[in-house]
Amino acid sequence: MNNSFLVIFIGLIIAIIVGAYFIKVHPALYWISIPIMAFVIWLAAIYGNIFNAIITAPEFSTTADNFGIITFIFNNYVYFITGVVLLLALALYAKTIVVREE
C-alpha cells in the first residue's frame, strides 16, 4: 500500500505535466491561471493539515507509523503540490510558438 501510493502519486504528477505540455494555451490566459494555481496550493495546505490531524489522533497514531512514505508525502504536501504547480505552469507556458509563413 505504501509503495503503491508513491508510484501512483509520481505517475499522476508525470501524467499531469506531460498532458499539460500537449495543451495549446494562449499566453494571455496565464493571468487567469495564477489565482487557480494559488487556490490549488491553498487546498493542498488544508489537505495536509487534515491528514496531520487524523494521524495525530490516538486511534490512528500506531497505524500511521506503518505508512512512512504516505506520512512523509502528506507532511510535506504543500511543498510537493507547489512544485507540481510550478512545473505545470512551466509546461503550459514555456512552449515555443511556431508561426507558419505562407
Question: Secondary-structure blueprint of this entry?
Answer:
Blueprint: H1 2-21, H2 30-55, H3 61-64, H4 68-75, H5 77-93
Number of strands: 0
**How many domain modules?**
1
Helix count from the secondary structure assignment: 5
Q: Give a short account of the largest sheet.
A: none
Mean pLDDT: 86
Beta fraction of the residues?
under 5%
Separation of the first and last Cα atoms? 56 Å
Shape: elongated
CA gyration radius, whole angstroms: 18 Å
| Helix percent band | over 70%
- Main structural class: mainly alpha
Could you list the spans in which at least 5 consecutive residues all have pLDDT below 50? none
Query: What's the helix-strand series?
Result: HHHHH
Walk me through this protein's architecture:
The chain has about 100 residues and is mainly α. The chain has one domain (about 1-95). It is about 75% helix and about 0% strand. The protein is built from five helices and no strands. Helix 1 packs parallel to helix 5 (about 75-95) and helix 2 packs antiparallel against helix 5. The N and C termini lie far apart (about 55 Å). The mean pLDDT is about 85.
Provide a compact summary of the structure.
The chain is mainly α and 102 residues long. Helix content is 74%, strand content 0%.
Keywords:
102 residues, mainly alpha, elongated
